[in-house]
Amino acid sequence: RWTVVGVDESAEQLRVARERVGERIDLIKADAHALPFPDASFDAVAAAFMHTDVNDVGLVFTEAARVLRGGGRFVHVGTPSCVVAPSVELVEGGRLPRSGYRREGWTREGAGMGAGIRTRVGVYHVTLAGLLNAVASAGLVLDRALEPEDEDPPPLFALAATKRP
To answer: Is 0.90 topped by the overall pTM?
Structure first.
């Protein structure tokens, strides 16, 4: 039997989650950079669409690895930084990379920002290499990386990794 725990730093996001899931899961207000759980507490950790919203994805992945038991699985799903990034401009028929892809950090400006919420709250841009290196630095072993095959360029990517025993 699995016990599911959701973590978010935003009380508003937790309120929305509570409305959707009821009392079926535990929801905890916490910073993913410093999870409030003992070492080796979980068999699996999933992170979704968060690497553009945190100051240090490497520290978040390290925290995920810390709370995983040996042999535990880590899964991350997000938007690919080479497709959806401040340095990628949306043009008719696709996306056009612009200068600045390798610049990591917070921004509210850029060709790929559009006119949505990201221009108000910002986005933390991290390269694909930065994400993969964060997995390795956390002591996780990459098992697999996936992209949907039915869209070009793919709007999502996923990776699965295992904590070393």
So the answer is: no
Q: What are phi and psi of 18, to 5 degrees?
A: -60, -40
pLDDT tens, residue by residue, 6-22? 999 999 999 999 999 99
3-state secondary structure of 61: helix
Distance separating alpha carbons of residues 3 and 65, to the nearest angstrom = 18
Taking 90 as the threshold, does the pLDDT of residue 149 lie above it?
no
User: Which residue, 64, 58, 61, is CA-closest to 126?
Assistant: 58
Tokens 């880590």 correspond to what residue? 74
52-91: b or e for each residue (b if 16 or more CB lie within 10 Å)? bbbeebbbbbbbbbbbbeeebbbbbbbbbbbbbbbbbbee
Q: Which helix (H) or strand (E) holds 48?
A: strand 42-48
